[in-house]
Backbone:
């Protein structure tokens, strides 16, 4: 800031600087810690999951007693919880990859309609109480990271299920529109108010009020989805109404 004399002339300048180096180092340490922790957690959790699945397979050969029935249902529950845990660890690893600028895409050429069908089939198997309506334009070939696009779809469909406590219907579609492919996931759940619609793609954002109590999560999924779609040169949009439902549409270039 300039310091002026009686005539309004500058007599001196006052400068203030803040050293943000230590803050940056602190951020880096936190990010390294999250990355290391996620890696350390991943190995034992993967191993526990392998053992649980082995036990489930062995149990499937045995028949009869009430005890075995209880053991089986307990192990199935553990298996489902481990799946949730591996998903969370994967998300944490992805976050630290993004922070470190190491989220690389492995691009391939593949049929997007085939991938969407596969993902929806998996959901049909794991969520037999739900109805997944699929509408597809066939033979749309794109160049993209297949696993990452699959992750985008899984996240959107999992959210559609999670945030629709009183509806069991999810509509999924793949459509070609000029030089874009549109992937959409529509639910008939709790919806998102207009003021929150832009924010849902922010890191750690969760809609206040109804969420924390009833729906588990950390507000990372849509941040990752947005990041992956942007890295493919695409975009994602949301249309929604409270208590009517939400429609998420991913636009990807057809290259
Ligand atoms: P999480 O579900 O783990 O909280 P996400 O990043 O996937 O994190 O979503 C961010 C927030 O956006 C959620 O907490 C929820 O409030 C809102 N949201 C996401 N998808 C839907 C949906 N299909 N219907 C209603 N709200 C949603």
Residues:
């Amino acid at each position: 800031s300039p310091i002026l004399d009686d005539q309004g002339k500058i007599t001196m300048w006052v400068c203030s600087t803040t050293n943000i180096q230590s803050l940056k180092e602190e951020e880096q340490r936190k990010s390294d810690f999250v990355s290391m922790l996620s890696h350390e957690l991943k190995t034992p959790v993967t191993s526990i999951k392998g053992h649980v699945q082995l036990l489930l397979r062995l149990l499937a050969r045995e028949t009869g007693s009430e005890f075995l029935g209880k053991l089986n249902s307990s192990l199935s529950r553990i298996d489902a919880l481990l799946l949730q845990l591996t998903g969370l660890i994967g998300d944490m690893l992805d976050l630290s990859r993004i922070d470190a600028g190491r989220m690389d895409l492995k691009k391939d050429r593949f049929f997007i309609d085939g991938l969407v069908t596969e993902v929806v089939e998996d959901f049909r198997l794991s969520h037999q109480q739900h109805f997944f309506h699929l509408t597809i334009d066939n033979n749309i070939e794109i160049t993209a990271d297949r696993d990452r696009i699959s992750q985008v779809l899984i996240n959107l469909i999992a959210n559609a299920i999670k945030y629709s406590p009183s509806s069991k219907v999810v509509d999924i579609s793949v459509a070609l529109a000029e030089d874009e492919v549109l992937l959409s996931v529509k639910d008939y759940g709790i919806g998102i108010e207009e003021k929150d619609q832009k924010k849902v793609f922010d890191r750690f954002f969760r809609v206040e009020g109804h969420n924390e109590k009833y729906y588990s999560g950390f507000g990372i999924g849509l941040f990752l989805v947005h990041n992956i779609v942007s890295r493919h040169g695409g975009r994602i949009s949301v249309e929604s109404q409270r208590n009517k439902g939400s429609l998420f549409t991913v636009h990807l270039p057809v290259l």
Residues 21-61 form the longest helix (41 residues). The pocket of adenosine-5'-diphosphate is lined by residues 159-160, 163, 187, 189-192, 200, 205-207, 211, 217-223, 246 (CB under 6 Å). The chain is about 50% helix and 20% strand. The first strand starts at residue 2 and ends at 4.
